[in-house]
């Protein structure tokens, strides 16, 4: 039931587009939650296991402080997930069987933002300090989650980030109109007050050696994300005007954050025809960003077929609904096309080194045992899309290990251990996934590090 600022207003700025629920809406939705007989949202839906029915019951009774306490038991950064989580919990909400799901994500936002407004969220400093010094490489959601859990347990934690500011994908991969960066800075300030040290502008393995870091810390966590971008090596790929979507979004975020004076001219969509290749969230974010930059035309193409409007027979509740999703960026204009394969990039007439168009074709999909396995070109469907800029939003394939560790040695066990004192968490282990799953991974790995520390301490005391 998300409501947004008017399109004509919001495309003129990068401020958050989503409106908060009114008091009346909150009360109505909290009551709907209590009509549920057997909830699935907290266990089957939420990767963090948030106590959603109990949180909502406390909120309904006006016990917002109790709702906060329950939320923080499982979720370290509810202000992040309340803004950008796809709300897996809502996909398994009982109310969604015959109506709209209870908007648990937006209720979560109310719980945490009301708490911040009342000064109820402060640093949580460990009563006892552990003889445990941990380095975390990467300040995305998994690295931050691991760092917070370890620091609050009494460990000394240092987070290393190659970019100028901490936040990783949260800061550089998600537009401000979805996640304003002041929200990240507010949390980083809290973590710093808890004792976490942030070292930014330093690339581990390049500016500082892994060997040195392992000597400096008892444990070292690689929370690198999965940032190797999937390219599209087609004829014409070398033409000017073709960029990775994540580089484009990061550049705009750096402009807003003051790291760049202005958008690089070659990337700026002002007055240009834009084609976004890839139908996921990153592609959608490019659509919204291009409109805000003043693009004259924006199109988004996707090789996969158009999802159904409602659940298919093989996608029953309470599974996550694989249905067509229209984001706030899609509502701002442009055209979306599915089952489209890009064949090559064509130069601009009179400008042989610049992009001028995309050559495309429509495809059908062969299926096997109900799964789509192969796109098949549809004869006679070739067409050309004019484009001054093309953004490749094709996802990511693997972590960028650089000089950190040899790829063949990057094989963590199920608990995230790579070697004694060396661990990995988040998308670097699981592959590209959701922010909420990365947070969960970081928390679980922090528990593994603490367990290993306690076992080592017991062995040392027994030997003595």
Characterise the protein shown here.
- The structure is a single chain.
- The chain is of the alpha/beta class.
- Helix 6 runs antiparallel to helix 8.
- It has three domains: 7-117, Fumarate Reductase Iron-sulfur Protein, Chain B, domain 2 (Orthogonal Bundle), CATH 1.10.1060; 133-227 and 397-463, FAD/NAD(P)-binding domain (3-Layer(bba) Sandwich); 242-392, 3-Layer(bba) Sandwich (FAD/NAD(P)-binding domain), CATH 3.50.50.60.
- The chain has helices at 7-10, 23-33, 41-45, 52-60, 64-74, 78-84, 88-91, 104-117, 141-152, 169-172, 181-194, 210-216, 245-256, 281-293, 427-430, 435-463; strands spanning 133-137, 156-161, 197-200, 219-222, 242-244, 273-277, 297-301, 335-337, 340-348, 351-368, 371-377, 383-386, 389-392, 417-419, 422-424.
- The strands form three sheets. A six-stranded mixed β-sheet has the order 3-2-1-4-15-14, sandwiched between helices. Strands 5-13-6-7-8 form a five-stranded parallel β-sheet. Strands 9, 10, 11 and 12 form a four-stranded antiparallel β-sheet that branches.
- The chain is globular and about 80 Å long.
- The model has no long low-confidence stretch (mean pLDDT 96).
- The chain contains 16 helices and 15 strands.
- A hairpin with a 2-residue loop joins strand 10 (351-368) and strand 11.
């Amino acid at each position: 039931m998300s409501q947004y600022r008017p399109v004509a207003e919001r495309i003129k700025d990068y401020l958050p587009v989503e409106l908060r629920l009114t008091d009346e809406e909150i009360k109505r939705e909290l009551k709907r939650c209590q009509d549920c007989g057997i909830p699935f949202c907290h266990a089957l839906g939420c990767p963090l296991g948030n106590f959603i029915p109990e949180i909502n019951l406390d909120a309904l009774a006006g016990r917002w402080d109790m709702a906060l306490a329950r939320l923080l038991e499982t979720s370290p950064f509810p202000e992040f997930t309340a803004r950008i989580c796809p709300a897996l919990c809502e996909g398994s909400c009982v109310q969604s069987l015959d109506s709209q799901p209870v908007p648990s994500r937006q209720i979560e936002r109310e719980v945490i933002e009301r708490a911040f407004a009342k000064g109820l969220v402060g640093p949580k400093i460990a009563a006892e300090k552990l003889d445990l010094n941990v380095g975390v490489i990467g300040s995305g959601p998994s690295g931050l989650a691991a760092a917070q859990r370890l620091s609050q347990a009494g460990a000394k934690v240092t987070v290393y980030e190659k970019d100028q500011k901490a936040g990783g994908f949260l800061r550089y991969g998600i537009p401000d109109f979805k996640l304003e960066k002041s929200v990240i800075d507010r949390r980083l300030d809290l973590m710093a007050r808890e004792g976490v040290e942030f070292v930014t502008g330093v690339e581990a393995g390049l500016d500082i050696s892994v060997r040195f870091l392992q000597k400096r810390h008892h444990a070292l966590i690689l929370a690198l994300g999965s940032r190797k971008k999937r390219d599209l090596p087609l004829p014409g790929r070398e033409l000017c005007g073709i960029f990775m979507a994540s580089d484009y979004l990061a550049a705009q975020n750096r402009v807003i954050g003051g790291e760049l004076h202005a958008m690089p001219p070659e990337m700026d969509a002002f007055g240009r025809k834009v084609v976004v290749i890839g139908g996921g969230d990153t592609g959608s974010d490019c659509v919204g960003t291009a409109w805000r930059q003043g693009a004259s035309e924006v199109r988004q193409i996707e090789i996969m077929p158009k999802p159904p409007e409602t659940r298919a027979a093989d996608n029953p509740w309470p599974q996550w609904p694989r249905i067509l999703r229209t984001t706030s960026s899609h509502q701002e204009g442009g055209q979306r096309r599915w089952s489209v394969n890009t064949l090559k990039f064509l130069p601009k007439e009179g400008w042989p080194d610049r992009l001028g168009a995309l050559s495309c074709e429509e495809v059908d999909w062969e299926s096997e045992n109900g799964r789509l396995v192969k796109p098949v070109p549809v004869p006679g469907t070739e067409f050309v899309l004019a484009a001054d800029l093309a953004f490749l939003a094709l996802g990511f394939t693997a972590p960028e290990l650089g000089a950190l560790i040899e790829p063949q040695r990057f094989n963590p066990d199920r608990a995230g251990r790579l070697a004694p004192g060396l661990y990995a968490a988040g998308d670097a282990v699981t592959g590209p996934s959701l922010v909420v799953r990365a947070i969960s991974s970081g928390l679980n790995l922090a528990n593994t590090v603490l367990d290993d520390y306690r076992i080592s301490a017991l062995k040392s005391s027994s030997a003595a």
